[in-house]
Amino acid sequence: MADSIASFVTDNVLKCIKDEAELLIGLDDQVKSLKDQLEVIDAILVRSERARLRHHGPIEVLMGQLRDIACDAEDTIDTYSAKECIRNERSLIGSIIDWPREQWSKHEVAKKIEDISGRIDRIKRDLDSSGINLNQALQPPSFQGQPQQKRRRVEENEVVGFDDESNTITRRLLRRQGENHHLTVVSIVGMGGMGKTTLAKKVYNDLEVKKHFEQGCAWAHVSQDYSHKQLLLVILKAFKRLTIEEMKMEEEEIGELLLQCLKGKRVLFTTRVEHVAREADPTPHRLKFLSPDESWELLKKKVFGGEKCNKLWEESGRKISKKCGGLPLAIVVLGGVLFYKWTKTFDQWSKAVDCVSSILSERPKDCKEILKYSYDDLPLHQLRVCYLYFAAFPEDFEIPTKRLIRLWVAEGLVQVPPRSYETSEQVAEHYLDELIDRSLVEAVKRRSNGGVKTCKIHDLLRDLCIDEAQKQKFIIQYQERGIDEQLISIIPRRLAGKSNLLRYIYLKCSSKPLRSILCFIHRELVHGINTNLTSFCNNLQLLRVLDLEGIIVDTLPDEIGKLFHLRYLSLGITTLTKLPDSICNLRNLQTLVVKSKSIHSIPSGIWKLKKLRHVYLQGQTLLSPPTSTMDNESSLVDLQTLSTICPSSCTEEIFAQMPNLIKLGVEGDLQSKLESLAKSRDKLQQLKSLKLKRDLTSAPVIMLPRKFPENLTKISLHNTELEADPLQQLGQLKQLQILKLMEQSYVGYTLSFNSEDFERLLVLQLMNFYDHEFKLEMEEGALPSLERLVIHNCHSLQRVPDELWDLTTLEIINLWEPSGPVRSVILQKENEIKQRCKIEMFPPETH
Length: 847
Fold this sequence. Notes:
Elements: H1 2-19, H2 28-46, H3 49-54, H4 56-88, H5 92-97, H6 99-129, H7 134-137, H8 163-174, E1 184-189, H9 196-204, H10 207-212, H11 228-237, H12 244-247, H13 251-261, E2 266-271, H14 274-280, E3 285-286, H15 292-304, H16 311-322, H17 328-341, H18 346-360, H19 367-376, H20 381-388, E4 399-400, H21 401-410, H22 424-437, E5 442-446, E6 452-456, H23 459-471, E7 476-477, H24 485-490, E8 494-498, H25 501-508, E9 516-520, H26 530-539, E10 545-548, E11 568-573, E12 591-595, E13 614-621, E14 641-645, H27 652-655, E15 663-668, H28 670-679, E16 689-694, E17 714-718, H29 727-730, E18 738-742, E19 750-753, E20 763-770, E21 774-778, E22 788-794, E23 797-799, H30 802-805, E24 812-816, H31 820-834, E25 838-842
Parallel strand pairs: 1-2, 1-3, 7-8, 8-9, 9-10, 10-11, 11-12, 12-13, 13-14, 14-15, 15-16, 16-17, 17-18, 18-20, 19-21, 20-22, 21-23, 22-24, 24-25
Antiparallel strand pairs: 4-6, 5-6
Helix pairs in contact: 1-2, 1-4, 1-20, 2-4, 2-6, 4-6, 8-9, 11-13, 15-16, 15-17, 16-18, 17-19, 21-22
């Protein structure tokens, strides 16, 4: 819906007028007039949903016109405020010389604002003459609040109708081959949304399959735009460790090597095209549509979960499940809509079903119509725009949620409700949770605390996002085969694509008002883009997002400081050894990501960037303290994430400038500087997550700090080589929920859990101790809240006490290459433990 984008832009302009008021001095009357007009637009847009349905054609045209006006207003204000910021940095003499140009600039802005006001007035007159009564047509929508906090997930093992299909595929994969040692291929064929990938993943994760193929399994995505060589390498890496020479081999040579590795193996692949399947598998497995009973069962699980559904409700529910034509994707997406409309009364259930039925009555069994309706049903325009942002990501791309959420915030897509104490990031997490609950987004990986780590979107839903984003002039996805030139000429605001996108922008869009550039890794990483970057900084001064994840950045030009509006800068993989001082001119910067271990310090002017929220660096980065010329107020009050800095930067003076820091990473010579962290604990009252990593060239850590920030909920230790049991100190952290002991963090013999400590610990991870011999001990009643136990690559772990396996709170035990004693105990207690929790072990035991 066009009103989503127009509302988003209008909200951003109003916020900009408020935030940059000091730069708009001298245009008071014009800015007030524009603000009043934009508030009129916003009022129309917020209440436009019912009008759109009642006057579809006229209102759609209206939304398009209002969107264009809002975008022009945004460009006008942003361009002027950027110029004014530069002028304010000039000397007195420079300002005097530039005064005539400044007055002319104000005159030009005033003319543009008058033109915008005139366009809005004409729209109002057109509405009156067309007979549309805004007071009646633009009624308030039924939902005005924030996303509802309803939580219900249909996990993969809850899908319906795949048991027989899964058994058939599994039998074919495990069938004995006799003397035949050739490669066996099994294919799954079906239209988009049938559940091919879900079925394949169900078979792939089956314990019997894992046991049979104990030498290894590989999973690879093949997008429409892929590299044969990279695909072959991804599969090959699952079976052997590749040398540098093998990585550089030609495609045909890699194919031959892979073929040798796959002799006697099985390949399971999915496709929508039957003749493709038949090329490798004479008898492809054709997925069937769900039966009416299976369709209702899946819809019921999505909407009602484990709650009971009576016959009266079932009757109407079955009617609507039939409209999905047995297509699983359509059913779960439609179930997500009903899940949010249903309020546990039959009257509300009937209304929800009738509402959806009326929308779909004209085109029953049309999957695209169902998917489009699920998008239209999203309750907030912010939520719709956040969903359209998925159009920026490549097909089958597994999106880190932290990256997604920080992009949403930087783009201004997230709106914190009045009188809310939540951060923009927390509100964004609610947005993502709702999109997942509605089955519009898939949670691929989850964090140890249950949060979403990565997510992705089904290709049919991605097609919907791309279509809507282009229609609403929001995002264009650049493909190697090119872009519709007509689209580029209309909407040069956000461009996303692979690494060759930058050259296209350099050649075609250097004069456009681009707001965002997002690059993703594709085939070979690209070097030597300094010329392009310099051009961007000189010509694309309205940029808010510059995400170069798919680019190797060799040089960052001084001109980067000209990007006044830049809020998100990610340099991805970089060979940089220094950041230019001009980066400290980016007064609106919120997120800075620099993946270079060669950068050893941050420019001292970093304290001027008062809107910084997240700083991600690699290695041991020195952060200089603020200078004496700074005011006494905290400089970086919005900073939430700082990772990683060297231990010598962990001082009271520095941490006093960031009172709301939530996540901190420290790497370097920990032994000599850890006490300074202890002294700073009073300055870190909001700190929740702490990562400590020792530089392997420095001395081992003898003892942890006497005191840690008391509100820590997560702590990770890496390579500390502690000889003394650290659990006595760490157990004093009463709020601790996640404890990770990683990579030789402990080199003693016994880790002991006392009954009075770790009362709230939910997750315990022991990882990569390899051949270090040690054991676990625990008192009765210890770890009363533990839900997840993770032990990876602890090959010489001698003992895990029975009390740990017997914890009734445990939900998941995850073991990777467990030691002999641990594997033996697990196999003895397997049946007993499985009645209480899930066991994940690799490699699985073969009988």
